C-alpha cells in the first residue's frame, strides 16, 4: 500500500538531486549593471526558488501521505511498513536532500534580496531619524540551550526566536544575535556552525544551517518514532514503571507538538510493545498524558 508513496518520493528526490547538481549562481555577473539584465536575473532566481520549493513540498506531501496510509493498515502491516520506511529513508537520503534544498532556497532568497537592493533605491536615513545601536547586554533571563537533539529543536527555536531572533535589528543587531545563538549551542549543535565567523553577515546563514540540520519535521518525527521503538521495556516494578512513564511522557509530548495523534494505532502498538506484559500496559494506559 505504501509503494506509490515511496515511488513518488523517489521521483521527486531525483528531481532534487538534479536541481542540487545544477544550482543557480548566487553572484551577479561581472559588469552586469543595467536594470533590464538585473530584472531578467531576478526572474530566473525567482523561478528557481519556486521549482525548489515545489520539489521540497511534494516530497513532504508524499511523506505525510505515507504516514497517513499507515493508519489504515493492520498492526502487523504497520510495524513492518515502519521498518520498510526507515530503510527507505536511510537508503534514499531524501530527508537530507530536502534539508539541502531548504538551504539552497534560503541562499537564493538572500541573493534575490541583494538584487532587490540594486533594483530599488534604498531610502536615505538622515541623522535625525537614525537610531543609535545599544551596547551589547545579556538578556535578564536565562537563554535556552540546545545540544543537537532533534526532538528538542522546536522548543529551543521557539524560545530563542521570542527572546532574541524577533528583536528589532535596531535594538539588537545581527552580530549580537549570532553571539547569543552561539552561547546557546552545545555539542553537535555548536559544531554545526563552528565554521561561521562571528560577523553580522553570518547570522542568517547560521540560522538556515541549523534549521536545515535540526529543524526538518520529517526527521524529527522519524527520531521520535525510533525512540518509541527502542524504549527500554518496563519490568513492572513501581520505580521502573515511573521511569518508563517519564520517558514515554517526554516522547509523547514531543509527538503532540509535532501534530501527531497519540491515539493512532501505530503509536499505541509501539507503546504496548515496550511493556513486558498486558498488565503493565494496562497500568501505563491509565496515565492521563496518553489516554
UniProtKB/TrEMBL annotation:
InterPro entries: DUF1759 (IPR005312). PANTHER family: PROTEIN CBG08539 (PTHR22954:SF3), RETROVIRAL PROTEASE-RELATED (PTHR22954). It holds the Pfam family DUF1759. The lineage of its organism: Eukaryota, Metazoa, Ecdysozoa, Nematoda, Chromadorea. It comes from Ditylenchus destructor. This is Uncharacterized protein.
Amino acid at each position: 500500500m505504501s509503494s506509490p508513496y515511496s515511488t513518488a518520493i523517489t521521483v521527486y528526490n531525483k528531481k532534487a538531486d538534479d536541481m542540487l547538481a545544477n544550482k543557480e549562481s548566487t553572484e551577479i555577473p561581472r559588469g552586469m549593471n543595467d536594470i533590464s539584465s538585473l530584472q531578467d536575473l531576478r526572474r530566473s532566481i525567482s523561478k528557481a526558488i519556486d521549482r525548489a520549493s515545489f520539489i521540497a513540498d511534494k516530497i513532504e506531501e508524499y511523506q505525510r501521505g505515507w504516514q497517513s496510509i499507515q493508519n489504515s493498515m493492520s498492526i502487523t502491516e504497520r510495524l513492518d511498513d515502519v521498518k520498510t520506511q526507515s530503510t527507505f529513508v536511510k537508503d534514499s537520503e531524501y530527508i537530507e536532500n530536502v534539508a539541502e534544498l531548504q538551504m539552497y532556497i534560503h541562499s537564493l532568497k538572500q541573493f534575490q534580496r541583494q538584487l532587490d537592493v540594486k533594483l530599488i533605491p534604498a531610502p536615505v536615513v538622515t541623522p535625525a531619524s537614525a537610531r543609535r545601536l545599544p551596547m551589547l547586554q545579556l538578556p535578564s533571563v536565562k537563554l535556552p540551550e540546545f545540544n543537537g537533539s532533534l526532538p528538542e529543536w522546536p522548543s529551543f527555536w521557539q524560545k530563542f526566536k521570542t527572546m532574541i531572533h524577533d528583536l528589532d535589528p535596531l535594538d539588537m543587531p545581527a552580530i549580537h544575535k549570532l553571539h547569543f545563538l552561539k552561547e546557546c549551542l552545545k555539542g553537535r549543535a555548536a559544531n554545526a556552525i563552528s565554521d561561521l565567523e562571528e560577523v553580522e553577515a553570518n547570522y542568517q546563514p547560521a540560522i538556515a544551517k541549523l534549521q536545515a540540520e535540526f529543524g526538518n519535521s520529517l526527521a524529527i518525527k522519524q527520531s521520535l518514532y525510533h525512540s518509541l521503538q527502542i524504549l527500554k521495556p518496563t519490568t513492572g516494578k513501581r520505580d521502573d514503571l515511573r521511569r518508563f512513564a517519564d520517558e514515554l511522557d517526554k516522547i509523547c509530548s514531543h509527538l503532540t507538538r509535532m501534530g501527531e495523534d497519540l491515539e493512532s494505532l501505530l503509536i499505541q502498538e509501539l507503546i504496548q510493545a515496550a511493556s513486558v506484559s498486558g498488565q503493565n500496559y494496562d497500568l501505563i494506559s491509565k496515565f492521563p498524558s496518553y489516554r
